[in-house]
Amino acid sequence: MSVTATSVVEATNLPSLCPQVRELIPGFGVDLGAWDLSNGVTDKQFSTIQELAIKFGVVVIRKTGLTDETHIEFARRFGELDDVRPYVKAGRKNRLKYDELFDVGNVELDGSIVNPLSPRAQANRGNSYFHVDSSFNPRRAGYSLLLAHELPPPGTGGSTEFCDTRTAWDDLNKTTKQELLGADYVACHSILHSKKLAAPEHFADIDPADYPMGRHKLIQKHERSGRMNMYLATHIHHIEELSSEESKSLYDQLFRHATQPKYRTIVEWQNVGDLVIWDNTCTMHRAMGGEFAAKYRRDMRRATVHDDSSQAWGLNEHSDLRQGLP
Ligand code: OGA
Ligand code: MN
Q1: How far apart are the CA of 287 and the centre of ligand 1, in A?
Q2: Can you tell me the mean pLDDT for 92-115?
Q3: Half-sphere exposure of residue 112, counting CA atoms within 13 Å on the CB side?
Q4: Nearest partner of 54 among 172, 178, 229, 205, judged by Cα
Q5: What is the pTM of this model?
Q6: Which of 107, 125, 127 gets mutated to test ligand 1 (max ligand atoms within 8 A of its CB)?
Q7: HSE-CB for 144 with a 13 A CA cutoff
Q8: In which domain of life is the source organism classified (predicted)?
Q9: Pocket (CB within 6 angstroms of ligand 1)
Q10: Which residues pair with 214 in a beta bridge?
Q11: What is the distance in A from the centroid of ligand 2 to the CA of 186?
């Protein structure tokens, strides 16, 4: 039985907390409307938001009034946070004050707009393909919380699109499901692979196979909801124990299936302070880009919560390694 917003609304008295709640597409994604979180979040409010994130994968909250500090504080309630310290140690400068925030907009250190032809822009292009966060690192991301600090003018792009990989699994035919469960495939995730797909010339001299990859089961249970999930992402370089042709063909087949329009929904960022929370272990997302990129600032900051499920480390050794270092 699919869970509807109505049943959650009834179960949690959500209307009294946020009357505007609506599903983005049936069973996937909810927009709670405006909800001021600047004065802290009660346990009741937090458990409602968490319950919605588990059931719907994506939760949009408008006009939260969050700052860097309260964004981090709120994110910490979902679990242990990832941080950019390994990247800073490796020489990357951080424009933001806190290491717990990932700078995913188009703003340079000096406040200017990232030149779309610059190495940084080339390296970010992979973000426009459907992906999950940090599947290439030893410990993957659970939740991501992305907060808008400055937005380009409406109509110039910059939306974020989400994809429901649990429902995509549900809809596979029985034979395919049995074949996949029987094979129990392991997929190898590489940030360099998705970056190179998006900017082949820039990464011409890099072979992702020369670098470590994150290994994760392709089909796995999303433990928080008990539903099965296809843990897909453009970061997948290959599926183990298949020839490269077989691997590519299986990946393409599943990715094409999962990214059909019926599993996708676009979130338009409307206001500074809009926050989107998504669960990387049952959804994919992508940056939609647009004409704003060369002209207008889009300042977006992401807190990233380490996964705490039994699948968090996949088949990887537990280590502090990070991929995509400069
Ligand atoms: C991210 C991401 C998409 C966007 O923050 O992980 O992929 O639209 N963002 O900025
Ligand atoms: Mn991302």
Answers
A1: 5
A2: 96
A3: 5
A4: 229
A5: 0.95
A6: 127
A7: 26
A8: Eukaryota
A9: 104, 127, 133, 144, 146, 160, 285, 287, 300, 302
A10: 189
A11: 21
117, two tokens = 């032809």
Mutate to test the pocket of ligand 1, among 300, 301, 304, 305 (most ligand atoms within 8 A of CB): 300
- 265-303 pLDDT, tens digit per residue, is 999 999 999 999 999 999 999 999 999 999 999 999 999
> How many residues are there in the chain?
326
7-44 pLDDT, tens per residue? 555 555 676 777 788 999 999 999 999 999 999 999 99
Please give the C-alpha separations between residue 44 and each of 18, 41, 75, 82, 177, in angstroms, as whole numbers.
13, 8, 16, 25, 38
In this structure, the residue with its CA closest to atom 9 of ligand 1 is 287
Q: Which tokens is 77 given?
A: 């309630």
pLDDT of residue 1: 39
Nearest CA to ligand 1 atom 8: 287
**Beta-carbon neighbour count of residue 287 at 10 Å?**
23
Residue 159, Cβ neighbours under 10 Å: how many?
13
